[in-house]
Amino acid sequence: MNWLLVVEQCLNGLQFGVMLFLMAAGLTLVFGIMNLVNLAHGSLYMVGAYLATAAVTRTGSFLAAVVFALLGTLAIGMLMEVLALRTLYERDHLDQVLATFGLILFFNEAVAIVWGRAALFTAVPSALSGHIQVLPGIRYPAYRAVIIVVGLLVALLLYVVVTRTRLGMLIRAGASNRTMVGALGVNIRLLYTVVFGFGAALAALGGLMAGPIYTVLPGMGEEILIQVFVVIVIGGIGSIRGALAGAVVVGMVDTLGRAFLRPMLSTVIGPSAADNAGPALASMLIYILMAAVLYFRPQGLFPALRG
Amino acid sequence: MSHSGLVGVYLSVHTPRYCTYDAAFAGKLAHPDFQAVRDGLVAQGRHVATLAPDAIVINSCHLIATFPTVVDGTPRHAGVLTAQEAPELIHGVAYDFPGDFELAAALVERGRAAGLPCTLANDVHYPLDYGTVMPVVCYLDRAQRIPVVPISVCLSADLDESFAWGRHIARATAALGRRAAFVASGSVSHKLVRGPERWPGAAEQELDHRLAQLIADGEYDKAWAWLRSVVRQRQLRHLADVLEFRAKPKEASVRVLRLMMILGVVVGLLAGQAARAAETVKIGFITSLSGPAGVIGKHMKDSVELALDHLGRKVGGLDTEVIYGDDQRKPDVGKQLADEMLKKHKVNFVSGIIWSNVMLAVAPTVTGAGTIMVGTNAGPHELSGKMCNELYFTTSWQNDQTPEAMGKYMQDQGINDVYAMAPNYAAGKDMINGFKRYFKGRIVDEVYTKLGQQDYQAEISQLRGKNPKAVFVFYPGDMGIQFLKQYAQAGLRDQIPLYSVYTVDETTLPAVGDAALGNFEARYWSPDLKNEASQRYVADFKKKFGYTPSYYGAQSYDGILLIDSAVRAVKGDLSDKKGMVAAMRKADFKSTRGKFTFNVNHTPIENFYLLRAVKGPGGETEMQIQKTIFENHKDAYYHECPMKW
Questions:
Q1: Mean pLDDT of B29-56
Q2: How far is A203 from chain B (nearest CA, A)?
Q3: Where are the beta strands (DSSP E) in chain A?
Q4: Tell me, what's the ipTM?
Q5: Distance in Å, alpha carbon of B266 to nearest chain A alpha carbon
Q6: Which residues contact A115 (CB under 8 A, 6 or more apart)?
Q7: Reduced to 3 states, what is the DSSP secondary structure of residue B365?
Q8: Is B544 helix (H, G, I), strand (E, B) or coil?
Q9: B129: domain CATH number?
Q10: Among B292, B450, B465, whose Cβ lies nearest the Cβ of A2?
Q11: Most B CBs within 10 Å: which of A214, A216, A222, A287, as the mutation test of the B interface?
Q12: Which residues of B touch A206 (CB under 8 A)?
């Protein structure tokens, strides 16, 4: 096995992990602070991708598309919180799952009505279409490198916001003890709306960056959402730090599993058995990991502190 | 037909002269004029055999009761018959057929609940008349295996009561879950007169034809009104005839005759209504309409609609209803949909299906229920081989065929060191197997990825590490879009040529764009295929829906045309499965791929072409046929299919 390839696969894993993190950060905040299970988070990812694609097609500027998609999804997310989700906070998780599943169907159909069922064309912006030399012998797609950088910057920004700002203090306080935050005179409703919009914008960021490498298509958010849930279960529900750690772990395990599990297995159980077992096992790996984490550390790797 | 209730209705005429053993078994007819009648009865027997009902409810105008209607629920009807009316012609006829007590009891219960005087017989000595026994043992069920429930005519009943009975028979059998056939033993042209020279002539027989025609046309109200008037007229005529031998109390017989006609016919009307329900062709079309594969489903659904437009919204000349189902790319959902379509909607055909794993769950469900399945995409090798079925057809291909073509082409080109990739599910394996059947060069590696995977960067890094000379992939739908984009973004498009099947097509091209340029595909159909049917399909499709159709659509369009050819061949008799299967085997319709034939396993024998993604005149990337790789290519599994025809 070639070590350059291992490094390259680690970059791939990191990049996938960063994508997962952008989704997981919003989802885990919403869950931790509002105690809301939002299955429709993947829909916000999709909406972000669609808004960006629409903007890029119209204006030709990727930067304009980023701004438009972030603000647009932020607005849609806040609207969704005010109109649909507010009534769900005091309800059972099962009700929330049902309602937000309904929202998935709503968003998928809405997108199909506006843009059609066929996948939309999006390309990597030409400035980022090349490759960069990461190490001698490793040329990495510039766009994917940018995803990694953006993701890590967002993680840093979130860290600063959560630990160093007043908003972050409220968020942490809300995650620890919601009732007390409300009792101390904080407008908890507004806080919820802001946090939800914020989470929506993060999902949109993931979606708009995913557009050029994946497929912009109704229902595109569902596949990734399942993995995002795995991330927040592994990382610890409600914890941004956990989301980052979980995302990177899941991204790495999934990518390296897909790349190296089969060759490794074939040295142990022979090539033909590995051909059968390898792909199946690789696709199960993150779920096995989740089961193991749940067994040994049911609260996740970095659980949010609870009051 | 699988639904319960009255599934067949027969007007079996009889007189002692042609409803005899000799006539039935030795063809010794009392008069050559009876030949047609005898042939008709034989045909009815054949029809009963294909229908295989659970029970026969028979109403003979010679089984007469006075005050209540008698329903004979004797569990076993065994005895020796000598006809009261003609002991010299019908005597010593042994019969032994089962009864259906449960059904008879249900009929009586229903009749009583409705206030109709009736009684249940359960007595091996209850005498049966020749009008009940002879049609059953000589023609309708010579093996005497189908349970028979005789029901009498009643002298005290009036027209409306007879009408009511018809309705109750239909409902009681349905409620009990029986698939019953109703036999009215008698005829409208029946004349109770002496002497062979006064047999019903052409004019009288015309009455029967007229009635049959009215029922066949679904004109039940007209038939009912007409019947009332005929009964009134003929009653007068009969009375006139009867006057000649007034000494004998013939009014009673006339009444019997009349009631028989009403009862038989009215039940016929009701069963006719069931038949009318079946005169709508119902097609259940299952595909993926939501989620990432929804666009493929849309191509298929739009093509079905276009086919219906081209057929004037009538498949096989019948009113047509298509029920669409969304399988969400999940085998369990697909199977549930199939069950629902079969049981609730009682569809006559199930069609569609994109995914092989869904097809493997759905096809056996459909054919197991005795319904015809017309696949319009998925071609798992099991269904073309060992699991082939008389009722299963596909208008697409067997999975291996297309990659076989690509394997052949790459073999002929002398390409070596190929890296093969496919999703890890039934069709993925078929594709690689098919490819390897004709490609004998070196395969660097064979990689299976998760079905529905979005990111292929890890696999692409591995691929680059192996430095192959060519890449062969099968990535349908959104997987293909992702793979092609990421392959191009990795800078490999210009370095390692990509050969694919079911990956670059009209569903994915709009989203892939230039990332597909130069890509090779193998396929049996492409929008630029030059034949009349294809060009009409493509032109009308673009006009109606505003986008370019794909092979998914062409196959689905063909599927509806295939069903149309079958229904047309049996003249709309949807119960004639054998006839429809025989017709479908001829592939007698204007296929978008041009003329083709079905192999013994109902998989097409067809041409395969090499396609390439090129810049079209409008600047968009489009597929263009380069050359024919295979002519009349057969799949690799038909030898394993035990079917012979």
A1: 82
A2: 17
A3: 131-135, 138-141
A4: 0.82
A5: 50
A6: A50, A54
A7: helix
A8: helix
A9: 3.40.830.10
A10: B465
A11: A214
A12: none
| B80 CB neighbour count, 10 Å cutoff | 11
B210, B119: one domain: yes
Residue B343 has pLDDT above 80, yes or no: yes
- Cα–Cα distance for residue pair A194/A225, rounded to 1 Å: 22
Instruction: Tell me if B454 and A215 make a contact (CB, 8 A cut-off).
Output: yes
- If contacts are CB pairs under 8 Å, which of residues 238-267 in chain A contact chain B? 255-256, 258-259, 262
Residues B503 and B575 in one domain: no
Whether residue B414 is found in the same domain as residue B466:
yes
Q: Are residues B375 and B441 in the same domain?
A: no
Mean pLDDT of chain A: 88
Q: How far is it, in rounded angstroms, from Cα B156 to Cα B259?
A: 10
For residue B237, the model assigns a pLDDT of 42
Q: In angstroms, rounded to a whole number, what is the distance separating the alpha carbons of residues B220 and B279?
A: 14
Q: Do B141 and B155 belong to one domain?
A: yes
E strand residue ranges, A98-163: 131-135, 138-141
**In this structure, what CATH number is given to the domain that contains residue B333?**
3.40.50.2300
> Which of the four pLDDT bands, split at 50, 70 and 90, describes residue B276?
very low
Lookup result for tokens 């935050």 = A181
Q: How confident is the model at residue B251 (pLDDT cuts 50, 70, 90)?
A: very low
Which of A12, A131, A224 comes nearest B457 by C-beta?
A12
Per-residue pLDDT, averaged over A49-69, amounts to: 92
Domain range enclosing B334: 280-397+529-602
Smallest Cβ–Cβ distance between B461 and the set A8, A131, A282 belongs to A8
Same domain, yes or no, for B133 and B79? yes
Q: Which amino acid is present at A289?
A: L
Please indicate, yes or no, if residue B499 is contained in any of the structural domains: yes
Best of A146, A215, A284 to mutate (most B CBs within 10 Å, chain B): A215
In A, residues 220-239, which contact B (CB 8 Å cutoff)? Answer: 220, 222-224
Alpha carbons B203 and B319: distance in angstroms, whole number: 34
Q: Which helix (H) or strand (E) holds B520?
A: strand B520-523
Altogether, the residues listed in chain B come to a count of: 645
A33 touches chain B (CB under 8 A): no
Sign of CA dihedral B157, B160, B166, B172: negative
Distance (Å) of CA B551 to CA A292, B292, B453, B475, B527 = 45, 18, 23, 15, 8
Strand partners, A294: none
Do B187 and B198 sit in the same domain of this protein? yes
Instruction: Please check whether residue A215 touches B, CB under 8 A.
Output: yes
* Least confident segment among B154-168, B243-257, B444-458, B506-520: B243-257
Task: Confirm whether B588 is domain-assigned.
Answer: yes
The CATH number given to whatever domain includes residue A213 is 1.10.3470
Rounded to 5 degrees, what angle do the CA atoms B390, B395, B396 make?
A: 120
Arithmetic mean of pLDDT, B494-500: 92
**Same structural domain, B185 and B55:** yes
